[in-house]
Amino acid sequence: MDDFRSDPKQYDLFAKVYSFLVGGKAVPGEEKCPPMGIRYGGIWYRPENLKERRFYNWHEFDDLLTQAFSLRSLSGEDIVKLYKMVFGVNAFIGNGPEEKVGIWVETEMERFKCIQCGHCCLNLYDSYCTTAHEEDLIRWKEEGRWDILGYIDGGDLWISPKTGEDVTRCPWLRKLPRTEKYSCRIHDTKPRHCKDYPKSKKHALRTGCKGFG
Ligand code: SF4
Ligand code: SF4
User: Fold this and answer.
1) Ligand with the closest atom to the CA of 175
2) Torsions phi, psi of 57, nearest 5?
3) Environment class of residue 120 by beta-carbon count within 10 Å: exposed (0-12), middle (13-18) or buried (19+)?
4) Is residue 64 within 8 Å of 56, Cβ to Cβ?
């Protein structure tokens, strides 16, 4: 559910997953709602073997989807199908290192290669306005990185020490001379938030990272 809520534009996917869980046919759409005639986005749903369909706005659909997940008992095969549907990579059931049965996911992260385009540091707002992890704060203190800590305020990064406001560009981003490439001046000790980007192939593709070609 976190994946859906983090990106509410995945309407087709929401509809597909709902249909998978409860049967019937769900499709994204709009409905004009009285009394003002305002158009709301949401899902049109027609249960199996019925002709009549009903509209649920996104708020109502969020509850429905949560309910569908909690009511449906998912087999391993169901989880594999859902994972492939949601994350767009291959998954299968198999034995793990201790011979325990589980689900293998081919993440394809081995194909990821950062081309230093700078997009994630320049254009993704939460790259330079987020909260530091505790482990980062501890490490920077241990490393004596008071320059980095100077841009933290109450755990939030990056805050300009001059204005006390959020910066409009990450202070550690550097454009490499005579190229269109960028580098991070604190690469070896950058925040976990940055180290973890992208979290998956899907995350990369949906946020405009070019690391998958
Ligand atoms: S957007 Fe992707 S390819 Fe570009 S700098 Fe960030 S991680 Fe590297
Ligand atoms: S700290 Fe480094 S990796 Fe993180 S946003 Fe700034 S330049 Fe990018």
Assistant:
1) 2
2) -70, 170
3) buried
4) yes
- Longest distance between any two alpha carbons in the chain, whole Å: 68
* pLDDT bucket at 2, cuts 50 / 70 / 90: low
For residue 197, give the ligand 1 atom closest to its CA: 7
Q: Whose CA is nearest to atom 1 of ligand 1?
A: 209
Tell whether ligand 2 has an atom less than 6 A from the beta carbon of residue 173.
Answer: yes
* pLDDT tens digits for range 98-116: 889 999 999 999 999 999 9
Domain spans of the chain?
1-72, 75-106, 111-206
What distance lies between CA 101 and its chain's CA centroid?
Answer: 27
In the block, which residue shows the tokens 């192939």?
201
190 ligand 2 Cβ < 6 A:
yes
